[in-house]
Design goal:
The chain has a five-stranded mixed sheet with strand order 3-2-1-5-8, with no helix packed on it. Strands 4-10-9-6-7 form a five-stranded mixed sheet. It is built from three helices and ten strands. Keywords: Copper, Electron transport, Magnesium, Membrane, Metal-binding, Mitochondrion, Mitochondrion inner membrane, Respiratory chain, Translocase, Transmembrane, Transmembrane helix, Transport.
Length: 226
Amino acid sequence: MATWGNTMTQDANSSLMEQLVFFHDHTIMILSMITIMVMYIMISLMKNVFINRYLLEGQTIELMWTLLPAITLIFIALPSLRLLYMIDEMNSPSITLKVIGHQWYWSYEYSDFPSIEFDSYMKPNSELSSMETRLMDVDNRTVLPMNNQVRIMVTAADVLHSWAIPTLGMKIDAIPGRLNQGNINIIRPGIMYGQCSEICGANHSFMPIMLESIPTENFLKWIKSM
């Protein structure tokens, strides 16, 4: 969960988010090198006292400042395209979770198990315990098994919503009449928080997402208890 002291991305809890963090670091490294080089050239030009009165063209330097940005863009584009295809890749998911956005709560359906569905509302301040987080805890948290391929199918019942959990690298738009899908593979147990990321009305800020990742054996016990 994001805290006041966070200046970088949250710790990755899925294989997809790990790749997103690697790509972020890769791109920042390239941008830092470009920034340092441009600053060095600008300072050198400002301190340069030599003047070439007869300079009309420089085909060599023009070729260089065309090729170098093109090569730089290739180094950014190739990992980006690889990541883009990884996001859409779906490898025989073990479980399907259907998410339905409402004003202003979420509904969850476990399609692989009969009659397991529930609504998830934000807990009001009066019901919070000392260890729970204000505006982030819900009455019915979503539970998923770790180290399993999970398909998330997202839609909405009324207006536009967006189901987003930053630590999983997951953000899927919930559109009425349309079913969007994504996939996650959670790599460690724990509780992850998210929020609706599409303005959906007066209580848009009060429909949090709370997802708990547990081992597969515990997940099967939880399913039997429902």
